[in-house]
Amino acid sequence: MSERLLEFQAVTKRFGGVTALDSFSMHLDKGEILGLIGPNGSGKTTSFNLLTGIYPKTGGSIHFDDRDISSMSAREVYETGIVRTFQRSRLCLPLSIYDNIMVGDTSRLPKGLWSNLVRRRAFRRQYEETFKVARDLVATFSGNLADRMLDPVGALPMIERRRIEICRALISGPRLLLLDEPSAGMTHDETNQLMSDILDVRARGEGLSIIIVEHEMGVIERITDRCVVLSYGKKIAEGTYAEIACDKEVQNAYLGVD
Amino acid sequence: MSDIAIDAPARPKGLLPGAATILAVSVYGWALLTAEEDWQVIGLLVLAAAVGLVGKLAGLGPKVLASWSSNEATMNGGAVLGLLAVIFALSTQHFPLLMLTTTLLYFIASLGLNIQFGYTGMVNFAGAAFFGAGAYTAAVLGGYAWIPPLLTILAGGVVAMVLSLLLVYPIVRTTGHYAAVVTIAFGVLFKTFLEVNEILGGPQGLMVESMKLPGWDFNNGPVLFGVEMSFYLNYALFATALVALIFCLVRRLERSWLGLHMDAVRLDETAAACFGISVHRTKILAFLSGNFILGIAGALYGMMISFIAPASFTFSDSLLMVSIVLLGGMGSPWGGALAAAIVVLLPEKLQVLQEYRFLLFSVLVMLVLLFRPDGLLPRQIRNYFPGREGGK
């Protein structure tokens, strides 16, 4: 019997008069890959932003692993083991690949002035250890990138940036990964490659759960266990890809009503 | 960790380009500081422009950079030696030494602003106020003979830091332009407070006691080999030590997890927060430590010029400090050194242009922002342990 990892209960978000998310309830089991789909503006990214504590909720509650995370800040949510990527890649372009990936994992490293400025020998050990871990992680996605760990990210093409963004999310060993349109700006082949890499990484670790927001239905069909469909902030369908693809309401939401 | 070194072999890079640069800059600095005739100054400026242009065409920049970063400790040591050589070459001349020391103190101030502006992205338009807080601390504490002046300098930093606590709340609650406006308001407030406060001397200002170390009064010119040196020599040497210390600390800060947090907060606050970085903590740390450095520089500055007034710490002085960071390159410590020299020396040396010299300076800043937005010596990508590429 599978265990609940995440539970949305009647989550609502209003921006002024606009209801971006209307009493949205859903759940995610441990180890599951859930597709969150729906037309533009249906509240998918808003769900991610509420979950990760970027926006405060208007109503409802979110539980992660039996803890109420409804009113946690972005930092506290991260500490429970939830990480994400962004729809428009939000990397630090002037920084190196290594730096960008380490942004995802520095919170567990020493933060004091003394340990950072004075205890340089210990710092060096942390640096060498993390460099190796980050490099190995990057190497699972692209051997070419692993050789360029100190190059700036700004010089890389989109697919490489996506890979780095995913490495940044994975480096801390999270329990839940939120992918916000990972295929944006990439070709079919690149997207497929990226998904295979993610599944590889997932297969090595134990029980990483994933929620993926995606417009590319091929990706959704291939990797998700279950899908939730949103339209105008409301859940209109739920089930396996095959089920929701035949759903009349889903077809109407995407294609319009005759 | 041998497997890491293989993919990015550290090519041995010669000391020559870096060493030649240090030598050239030292000689040039000496020549500029001692130039008195207008034609000499203008000749030197034309020379600098010409060398800069030829160097760019010949692609010397990357060579110097490579040589520098693969031998960083040696090069930094060499730069200190070059600076000491210039100081001793000028040892009997008051005015050039005063100029040089002022440059060094502005350089220290720019290092403080760099932590805030260059690394963390918080513009501080009250730099002169925190600098002034240090100077006024030195003036007040100088009245108590039992307080060791070295402690007074430290106290200058602490007072600047305590004052910045007043701003912490509005600064972390606002972002971008709004935070900048908060600092502008504080700068104006600080100067007005000094002007109306009789205890702190009002508009007339205060006398500041000189710097003293045990058995060493900085206001007496030291006698070396039977020659009496300028008393500014003391300050120049002390400022050199302070520059070296603070430069090392700021470099280490940049190349630490804290430096990475600061960059992450500057470039994308939301993403940083989503990865567990405390945006508030990082900003507060940057703001306080930057102002601490400004206060220290201000305390020594006050002791050196021995008389301070509110008019020395105005909004336009703050702007000057910000323009040092912009001109040199955001987040580039060496850029700050070059820009501090330009900002301090050019207006003094171009007296021939009278008030137009500030016009020239403003045009220079605009040109740099237009054509070299990363500054004269742009910041290099972070390498935690330079000279050992590939993480080894």
UniProtKB/TrEMBL annotation, chain A:
<dbReference type="GO" id="GO:0015192">
    <property type="term" value="F:L-phenylalanine transmembrane transporter activity"/>
</dbReference>
<feature type="domain" description="ABC transporter">
    <location>
        <begin position="6"/>
        <end position="257"/>
    </location>
</feature>
<dbReference type="GO" id="GO:0015188">
    <property type="term" value="F:L-isoleucine transmembrane transporter activity"/>
</dbReference>
<dbReference type="GO" id="GO:0015808">
    <property type="term" value="P:L-alanine transport"/>
</dbReference>
<dbReference type="GO" id="GO:0042941">
    <property type="term" value="P:D-alanine transmembrane transport"/>
</dbReference>
<dbReference type="GO" id="GO:0016887">
    <property type="term" value="F:ATP hydrolysis activity"/>
</dbReference>
<dbReference type="GO" id="GO:0005524">
    <property type="term" value="F:ATP binding"/>
</dbReference>
<keyword id="KW-0067">ATP-binding</keyword>
<dbReference type="GO" id="GO:0005304">
    <property type="term" value="F:L-valine transmembrane transporter activity"/>
</dbReference>
<protein>
    <submittedName>
        <fullName>Amino acid/amide ABC transporter ATP-binding protein 1 (HAAT family)</fullName>
    </submittedName>
</protein>
<dbReference type="GO" id="GO:1903805">
    <property type="term" value="P:L-valine import across plasma membrane"/>
</dbReference>
<dbReference type="InterPro" id="IPR003593">
    <property type="entry name" value="AAA+_ATPase"/>
</dbReference>
<dbReference type="GO" id="GO:1903806">
    <property type="term" value="P:L-isoleucine import across plasma membrane"/>
</dbReference>
<dbReference type="Pfam" id="PF00005">
    <property type="entry name" value="ABC_tran"/>
</dbReference>
<dbReference type="InterPro" id="IPR032823">
    <property type="entry name" value="BCA_ABC_TP_C"/>
</dbReference>
<dbReference type="InterPro" id="IPR027417">
    <property type="entry name" value="P-loop_NTPase"/>
</dbReference>
<dbReference type="InterPro" id="IPR003439">
    <property type="entry name" value="ABC_transporter-like_ATP-bd"/>
</dbReference>
<dbReference type="GO" id="GO:0005886">
    <property type="term" value="C:plasma membrane"/>
</dbReference>
<dbReference type="Pfam" id="PF12399">
    <property type="entry name" value="BCA_ABC_TP_C"/>
</dbReference>
<keyword id="KW-0547">Nucleotide-binding</keyword>
<keyword id="KW-0813">Transport</keyword>
<dbReference type="InterPro" id="IPR051120">
    <property type="entry name" value="ABC_AA/LPS_Transport"/>
</dbReference>
UniProtKB/TrEMBL annotation, chain B:
<feature type="transmembrane region" description="Helical">
    <location>
        <begin position="176"/>
        <end position="194"/>
    </location>
</feature>
<feature type="transmembrane region" description="Helical">
    <location>
        <begin position="232"/>
        <end position="250"/>
    </location>
</feature>
<dbReference type="InterPro" id="IPR043428">
    <property type="entry name" value="LivM-like"/>
</dbReference>
<protein>
    <submittedName>
        <fullName>Amino acid/amide ABC transporter membrane protein 2 (HAAT family)</fullName>
    </submittedName>
</protein>
<keyword id="KW-0472">Membrane</keyword>
<keyword id="KW-0812">Transmembrane</keyword>
<feature type="transmembrane region" description="Helical">
    <location>
        <begin position="285"/>
        <end position="308"/>
    </location>
</feature>
<feature type="transmembrane region" description="Helical">
    <location>
        <begin position="73"/>
        <end position="91"/>
    </location>
</feature>
<dbReference type="Pfam" id="PF02653">
    <property type="entry name" value="BPD_transp_2"/>
</dbReference>
<feature type="transmembrane region" description="Helical">
    <location>
        <begin position="14"/>
        <end position="33"/>
    </location>
</feature>
<dbReference type="GO" id="GO:0005886">
    <property type="term" value="C:plasma membrane"/>
</dbReference>
<dbReference type="InterPro" id="IPR001851">
    <property type="entry name" value="ABC_transp_permease"/>
</dbReference>
<feature type="transmembrane region" description="Helical">
    <location>
        <begin position="320"/>
        <end position="346"/>
    </location>
</feature>
<keyword id="KW-1133">Transmembrane helix</keyword>
<feature type="transmembrane region" description="Helical">
    <location>
        <begin position="39"/>
        <end position="61"/>
    </location>
</feature>
<feature type="transmembrane region" description="Helical">
    <location>
        <begin position="358"/>
        <end position="377"/>
    </location>
</feature>
<dbReference type="GO" id="GO:0015658">
    <property type="term" value="F:branched-chain amino acid transmembrane transporter activity"/>
</dbReference>
<feature type="transmembrane region" description="Helical">
    <location>
        <begin position="122"/>
        <end position="144"/>
    </location>
</feature>
<feature type="transmembrane region" description="Helical">
    <location>
        <begin position="97"/>
        <end position="115"/>
    </location>
</feature>
<keyword id="KW-1003">Cell membrane</keyword>
<feature type="transmembrane region" description="Helical">
    <location>
        <begin position="150"/>
        <end position="169"/>
    </location>
</feature>
